[in-house]
Please model this.
Amino acid sequence: MTTRTIRLACWTVALGLAAMGCGGAQGAGEGEDPEVVVLHGDLGNAFVMAGESAEVISRIRIETRALENVQRPPINLALVVDTSGSMDGAPIADARAAALDLLDIMRPQDRLSVIAFHSETEVLLPSTRLDGADVGELRRQIGRMEARGTTDLAGGLQSGLEELVSHYEPEGINRLVLLSDGVPNDASQILPLAQAAGERGIRITALGLGLDYDETLLGHIAQRSGGRFHFVEASEQVAGVFRDEVLRFERLLARNLTLELRPGPGVRIAGVVGQAMQAGGGAVRVSLGDVSEGEQRDVIVRLQADPRRAGAVVELMDAVLTFDDAVVDAGRLERRVFLGARATRDDA
Model:
């Protein structure tokens, strides 16, 4: 077992009849449900052909409502930047400027760490609470970022997660933003790290810069952790993406979203487009990470229904969304929506 594998193991241990409407709200906590997360369900067609097996496409939509005068929790942010030789020139200059820009937009109660990875990994700025910090010294440390060597993405990701875990904010927002423009030296430990991060409630925003990064890997890093993936075409766009992500963190409404899909009798879930599924107890579960104000999420579900008699009601699916409230500490909340169709002999 390698040193990195041992560290990973230790870190993981540490870390018609179609019901088109809004799901009901349930849950209990210290605060009252702010009702800013809404669940809808729609079908591609409210009818299925009688006497035939039918595939039904459904859309589960998660929407959010606007907030007014809500104090957000502190952010614990790790910025992990690829500083390999391919970043030389404008890309490294823009990445450095974008990292420095974060010091101007984050709030005093927030924490920031900055990690650079090339042939090795450097912690340029250990996790630092910004109130009372010497901003000039922080800028000097971030300014040491330079391009050289190869791409130790696994080491950079692990160091970033260690910084977050060492100052984990149980009631705050713990996030890692990863920027890379290339293919990692060794990818074997990367997805287990992303999985462990997601299980600990740490979401990873993965940014692919330019044309030569590993799109599949970065997409899976985001998906495994419940985070987001962005393609950044040009390095001058990096600062704007960093800024947008921090502003999105500030308007966080719900954490740890889980969508449970419960098929009706004679119905099975054939697939969920673009999402990893976990099956058990006759249901399918999909982890959706967090949601912020202004976001809308669509989950497309393929259902397969057994033949029914004409006029019969087809009870297709219950969709149950659970999440942790991030607005008023209302605890674990729930939304539900039911989807049904009717069998007909007419062309649907």
User: Anything to note?
Assistant: The domain at 16-69+253-344 is CATH 2.60.40.3670 (Immunoglobulin-like).
